């Protein structure tokens, strides 16, 4: 049928997301995106948008995909806070160990490149980090920790989670990454044992 798209938009977006995630915004050319998606430049522009628009769509897709997994892990925070936080970090560690996706985190990679990015992309990366902090804060409120502890652990867990992505790109192995998580979870466990 004339005018009908001959490709699956979700498949193309996933391929573009992986390309951006692997190489970053600056080091991904339209030729790279064309090779990754199987689309010519014209089809990319007409169906997926220019490079900035496509990157924003991919960043949103990434944040939603992993955000949903984090939400599932944190759902049990009121009943078993330590298990919930372990599950939160397991989402990241499983992503890092997945051979089908690049090392690291697309949000962390984007955040580190903020000085070279457009204002819209920089704002979206900052929003993604703020959303993760809000997600953690909401889960931690259910633990009955003090408001100060809730805020401090939310910031700390976001920082640790992003550092896991950076460390994995630098070659840290799963044992080392799990040690980083373990130290944070031990501190969290101690705080839980002292709650009123």
Automatic annotation (TrEMBL):
Residues 6-66 form the HTH tetR-type domain. It comes from the Bacteria. It holds the Pfam family TetR_C_13. InterPro entries: Homeodomain-like_sf (IPR009057), HTH_TetR (IPR001647), Tet_transcr_reg_TetR-rel_C_sf (IPR036271), TetR_C (IPR011075). The keyword Transcription regulation applies. Residues 29-48 bind DNA. PROSITE patterns: HTH_TETR_2. The keyword 4Fe-4S does not apply. One of its GO terms (molecular function) is DNA binding. Keywords: DNA-binding, Transcription, Transcription regulation. This is TetR family transcriptional regulator. It comes from Nocardia tenerifensis.
